[in-house]
Specification:
Heterododecamer (2C3:3R2) of six catalytic PyrB chains organized as two trimers (C3), and six regulatory PyrI chains organized as three dimers (R2). The chain is of the alpha/beta class. The chain has eleven helices and nine strands. The protein has a five-stranded parallel sheet.
């Protein structure tokens, strides 16, 4: 397979290989060797049809640290605005001798669709509410680093599970590695039949936090929300937001994660997000090494 379209298509060994490769790149970066010549003959296009800060910048940094040539495409400043289709857009970019495409798109399955119609390696950088595989990889990698492994750990994913590609990819990745997973949030924001993925549903946040080693707090995705299904922001924060007082009332110290961007004061207060219990910025740091690993491993298959 020359694509990374979702965690659903990986197995445990694939994840282990990505992590071992990321360990190598992280060690290289930590030795202040910020650039390796590995992908000097590879050209990569980052095409983003949706906004991004972390994913876009860390892919670009990962590509540059591997010495790839990089072009960036943002739909809002492109001929997509004149009606050009996705396939035409990508084929035009590929005709400039591009080897790999990193794509974020609002439609679930956009990466899978593209992989069937163009001749290039595709990495899914988030497709609607479907998957965000590199986010899940960097999340598991950060748990592995902080807790010396993922197997047997109790992880709760809190919040807007229904609209979250981060939740779905994390569930696949964590289950593959032998973690126990619960989801916690308002019933209206939890997909029906999610138990079929091997996760438990908990609607009481305190119980979920008492059970877990790690809480991954998700952003309420107002931009994808059917407003009639949503509790008010105040109600959401009261029932599913975490704050210092709540964490101090638990009988143990848990690890706090968030994929970003944060709605400060909604799903998480600043005194938690910025505390020693939070590994939010470590997640972002690890995103570069993980993306270097994924790009490197795919590029070595297409050469
Ligand atoms: N976590 C994440 O995907 O952030 P961005 O939307 O800023 O890329």
């Amino acid at each position: 397979v020359n694509h990374l379209l979702g965690i659903k298509y990986l197995n445990k060994k694939d994840i282990e290989l990505i992590f071992e490769t990321a360990d190598h790149f992280k060690e290289v970066i930590n030795r202040s060797i910020k650039k390796v010549p590995t992908l000097r003959d590879t050209t990569i296009a980052n095409i983003f049809f949706e906004n991004s800060t972390r994913t876009k910048l860390s892919f670009e940094l990962a590509e540059k640290r591997l010495s790839a040539d990089v072009i960036n495409f943002s739909a809002s400043q492109s001929s997509v605005k004149k009606g050009e289709t996705l396939i035409d857009t990508v084929n035009n970019i590929l005709s400039m001798k591009v080897d790999m495409v990193i794509m974020r798109h609002p439609n679930p399955g956009a990466g899978i669709f593209l992989s069937k119609h163009v001749n290039a390696s595709i990495i899914n950088a988030g497709d609607g509410a479907h998957e965000h595989p590199t986010q899940a990889l960097l999340d598991s990698y950060s748990i592995r680093e902080k807790l010396e492994g993922v197997e047997g750990k109790n992880v709760v994913i809190v919040g807007d599970i229904l609209h979250s590609r981060v939740a779905l990819s994390n569930i696949f990745a964590l289950k593959l590695q032998g973690a126990k997973v619960k989801v916690c949030g308002p019933k209206t924001l939890i997909p029906k039949h999610i138990e079929s993925l091997g996760v438990e549903v908990e609607t009481d946040l305190v119980k979920a936090l008492e059970w877990c080693d790690v809480a991954n707090m998700l952003r309420v995705q107002n931009e994808r929300m059917d407003i009639s299904y949503f509790p008010s922001t105040r109600e959401y924060t009261q029932q599913f937001g975490i704050n210092r007082k709540l964490l101090d009332s638990l009988n143990k110290e848990i690890v706090i994660m968030h994929p970003g961007p944060i709605n400060r004061g909604v799903e998480i207060t600043s005194d938690v997000a910025d505390s020693d219990q939070s590994i939010i910025l470590e997640q972002v740091e690890n995103g570069v090494a993980i993306r270097m690993a994924v790009i490197y491993l795919l590029a070595s298959k297409i050469k």
